[in-house]
Amino acid sequence: MGHSAAVWDCRTAIEITKDWNGIDQVMLRNPHGASAKVSLHGAQVVSWRNEHGEELLFTSSKAILKHPKAMRGGIPICFPQFGNCGSLEQHGFARNKVWTIDECPPALHPNDSHGKSFIDLVLKSSDEDLKCWPHSFEFRLRVALSSHGELLLISRVRNVNGKPFSFSFGYHAHLSVSDISEVRIEGLETLDYLDNLSRKERYTEQGDAITFESELDRVYLGAPNVVAVLDHERKRTYVVRKEGLPDIAVWNPWEKKSKAMADFGDDEYKQMLCVDGAAIEKPITLKPGEEWTGRMELSVVPSSFCSEQLL
Ligand SMILES: O=P(O)(O)OC[C@H]1O[C@@H](O)[C@H](O)[C@@H](O)[C@@H]1O
After folding, report:
1. What residue ranges define each of the domains in the chain, with the CATH number in brackets?
2. What is the value of pTM for the model shown?
3. What is the mean pLDDT of residues 54-82?
4. What would the mean pLDDT of 197-212 be, rounded to a whole number?
5. Is 206 annotated as a binding residue?
């Protein structure tokens, strides 16, 4: 029996199974056959498929699926540190923790629920976390799949500590692309960026789009809230929308670096592009009791949409 959007029952659109480590993972479906899978391991979105069943996120064929390491691919959550800009492990500890399902999350705007299948996850600082990062927090993540197949991630971080704390953050989205050499990013031109390949020095983007012909590892500062990733060969465009996240990080390790990484398959760097909605240059500071919200929405449109219509 088919479902129209009006009678679609979001409760039946969710299924809980186990991931590779026996940790729960949640499958979200929409009425047209699109799906998203979220592991409680790191609250990592590990799959996002369109209504034709095509995978839209990259996962390495050599991904190491061993708790507590985050799998190479999908969308790991980088918190409370993005990259190596602090004293914590690379990209922070949240991606290596087992989150729980949040049965009674504080309310979000009705638009973030209506017509969507979604799951709410929560991570609270453990005694172990407090040893390396002595700030009590509650991190709530909603992952939602809309009836049009868009993937929405909403992070809410609350300071439940007696003192202010600061953190950096990123949705480390591994997009699946046909061939990195054929891909361009529009929306970042003329921006300043920090180049991780030259000691985070600041430069200004000169090109009229970002294209790829070698390793690239940058943080674009004060980026617009909509960025388009055009994949000419697949004739499709990813649209990345963000709110509450000033920066966009862009990463592709290229051949030499990916070969040196145990969890990358041969030449797989060609099929991957990381575009992260992030808060990196200026960490977010929360006073006791304050909450921060950062959202990222991913959608895919045919490449016949020109970027002027999107940006
Ligand atoms: O190997 P990791 O910890 O998942 O990080 C992957 C990459 O993530 C990017 O965001 C960083 O800018 C890179 O420098 C880093 O190599």
Report:
1. 5-310 (2.70.98.10)
2. 0.95
3. 97
4. 96
5. no
